Amino acid sequence: MLGPPGAGKGTQGRRLTAHLGYPSISTGDALRAEIEKQSSPGRAARNLMDAGELVPDSLVNEIVQARLREPDSRNGFILDGYPRTVSQAEFFEQLADREGIDTLAVGIRVEDDILVARLSRRWSCARCGRIYSRVQDPGAGPGVCDDCGAGLVQRKDDRPEVVRERLQVYHQTTPLLIDFYRRRGMYAEVDGKGSEDSIFEAIIGIVNGKQRDRTASL
Ligand code: AMP
Asked: How far apart are CA 94 and CA 189, in angstroms?
């Protein structure tokens, strides 16, 4: 899943997980867990993440490769926030070729102004990662998660000045990434302005179309 911060990759990733039964793998969540553990990758990532910069490709490539060895991703998986650079996409392409993984890149398109406003309202569950908007769920933030009861937290990098830096990084790197997948006929895009349900329906339509194409070519 490609898209700027706040486009809904995490929310849609969770819905896809529930619908398809594939795990959703977020490199941002994995890095935040490393920071929490104060591990050496966590220490390497912390300042870069707080500043809205990308962490080194080798760090996230390693995280994804290790995560894909776990048995729950054998039948399929959803990547949220990875790849973010062409070098990561090349690394993943090699891995996918080796492992026989069929790839589809789905981009969620949303304008910057909407994103800054959305992210300033975003709260997420510290335990299960469910995402809340204070406007959609009045009284929920900074309350507790409806699903698991853990406290809701606001991300440090959702402050407007860091969001602007993240968007700048996004606009610098993503066109090349979109081009990478377009040239391979693996890219599809949905409009991220609609309701959560309509975006989900659009993504499922693309995934089902891809599965039909694959079955037809077998
Ligand atoms: P996210 O939760 O996807 O918005 O990611 C939060 C932050 O984690 C980003 O601003 C980056 O600092 C870092 N990050 C997550 N995924 C990647 C990636 N694939 N490549 C480089 N940095 C990443």
From this structure: 23
